[in-house]
Each structure stands twice: as C-alpha cells, then as structure tokens.
Design brief:
globular, single chain, 2 domains, four-stranded mixed sheet, 22% strand, Spore Coat Polysaccharide Biosynthesis Protein SpsA, Chain A, 300 residues, eight-stranded mixed sheet, alpha/beta
C-alpha cells in the first residue's frame, strides 16, 4: 500500500521539523506533503532545505480544511494520512496504518502527551444523531482510503473549525467504518500544541448549527442538540461569572454572539443542503475550487 502523509502547518517551524524527522525515521517510504500557509517564521526555507519532503504547497488561506484539501490534491498514494505538525509518529505507526486499513475505510489513533510521567490520550468518541451512529476521528492522526476522500470530495472548506467533525457525519451517512488503532500512536511534548486557546464562541456555534442542519436538515433532534450545547456552555460561563473569572457584560455579549451565529449557521446549513442534494453533502469541497495553492514545490 502506497501512503501519502499530509502535514498542514502554520508558524511552527521547530515542531514541524521534529514531526518530519520522525516520519523520515519511522515511515521513510511514505510520500510526505507539507502544506504551509501562510507562515512567517522561516518554515518555507526549512522545508526546502530538507531532502525528505516530496511536496511543499504554499497557501494564502489559513483554514485547516483548505490545507487538507490542498494536500489531497497533490497526494498520489492509495491511502492519505493527516498528521498534526506538533506531534511525532512512533515506530509502529506505519505498520498499524496498513493493518487497520485492511478492514476499514478510515483508521485513527491516539495522540499521547507526556507530562511528569503521565499520559493524556485522545480516546474514541461516538454519538447517535437522528438514528445515525457517528464515530469521530482524531483529526491530527487519521488515514483514509483515497477512494473515500474522492467520493466525499474531501473536507468542507466553508468551515473554519469543525470540518473533521463534519466529515465524520458524512462518513456515517454512507456507512463507512472508522477503526480505532492504539498502534497508530503519535506523541506530543506538553507545550507544543500552542498552549491554551480561547474559545471562539461565535464560530463554535455557527459551525455546529451548520454541520447539523446540513447533514440532518431541520428536525427536533437538531434543535435539541443545539439547545443542549448552548445551555451547558451558558451554565459553565455563568459559574465563571460567579467566581469572578468573567464579567457579566462579557457573559451577555457571548450569549448574544452565540444566538446570532447559531441563526447564521442554520441559514447557511440549509443553503448548503440545497446546493448539494447528494449524500456527500459538500458544496464547498475539493471540486469547488482550483486556486488553493500560491506556490508548489514538487521534488518527486
């Protein structure tokens, strides 16, 4: 099985270097595609100076879904893997991929963070939505049969966040199995994932509403899930107000933003559903544009 490994990156030159070193050590036969964009820390020069990267794609668009689709565009392997640029593959990762794809169309595994002799591992996660069993995958450690990505037209580039969750819904719609493999382990040193990030409440709920409505239409199940998530986050933030960590004005402003973006996501989800009535539900997929790359360095 020929495998292409796509590594999207943005302003993480040192972490990316470690990721590429590990791929060179543990998966030397894999085709390596780095999608950079747009970094300002010398990433381009570092990658061009290496001899273990097959393709470097430079982008102007920062959306991770766009970077992943740009990698698919250049991949030649029968299987396409996506690896987080801040993590490193382990010795058994390549063999685990081949074994897992022997019985499933998609395989994913854990990312382990090391801190004071303790490990925190990403575990399998699944939900049943409108009678559909959805298995989510680790977006920074996943491999697909290439035919599956072609059939689903890659990732939905409308989404700034949540494109992997959206793809999981679309995989479930076509009854594709996602296999969890502990052998597909990535490791990450604490502090290399960019640290704590502030939640973008607007995009979180715009994305959630868009994904649910696009994939399931307007139905009671969708509204219940939106209300449940919003209510849970509302109570969490209200506790933060009570503890003095958040000002009441911020809480009210966040609530208004959540409602506004949820409404926008519902509207956009309905529009996307109309524009792609096929089961793949991806009007902003790979086939929707051809101008992703600003520059391509292909050393194959």
């Amino acid at each position: 099985m020929d495998t292409s490994v796509v590594v999207p990156t943005l302003n993480a030159r040192d972490q990316l270097s470690g990721c590429l070193d590990a791929l060179s050590d543990h998966a030397p036969e894999a085709e390596v595609i780095v999608v950079n964009g747009p970094s300002s820390d010398g990433t381009t020069g570092m990658v061009r100076d290496r001899d273990d990267v097959d393709v470097l794609v430079e982008l102007a668009d920062r959306r991770i879904a766009t970077a992943r689709n740009a990698g698919i565009d250049r991949a030649r392997g029968d299987a396409v893997a996506f690896v987080d640029h801040t993590a490193t593959v382990t010795a058994g990762w390549r063999d685990a991929i081949e074994q897992a794809l022997g019985s499933a169309a998609v395989a994913t595994g854990p990312t382990v963070s090391h801190a004071d002799e303790t490990n925190e591992t990403t575990a399998p996660e699944s939900r049943t939505i409108a009678g559909r069993d959805v298995s989510y995958f680790n977006p920074g450690n996943v491999v697909f049969d290439r035919a599956v990505l072609d059939e689903l037209d890659g990732y939905d580039e409308f989404l700034e966040i949540g494109a992997s969750r959206d793809l999981a819904h679309r995989l479930a719609a076509q009854s594709y199995d996602i296999r969890w493999s502990d052998g597909m382990e990535l490791t990450r040193r604490v502090g290399t994932d960019g640290g704590e990030r502030r939640t973008d409440w607007g995009w979180k709920y715009r994305s959630l509403a868009y994904r649910l409505v696009k994939n399931y239409s307007l139905r009671p199940t969708v509204f219940r899930r939106l209300v449940f998530h919003a209510g849970s986050d509302c109570l969490t933030e209200l506790r933060a107000v009570g503890q003095g960590d958040t000002r009441p004005s911020e809480w009210f402003g966040t609530g208004k933003g959540v409602l506004t973006n949820m409404a926008a996501g519902i509207k956009e989800g309905l529009s996307a559903r109309r524009h792609d009535r096929t089961i793949r539900r991806n009007p902003s997929g790979r086939s929707a544009r051809t101008d992703r790359a600003v520059a391509i360095y292909d050393w194959r």
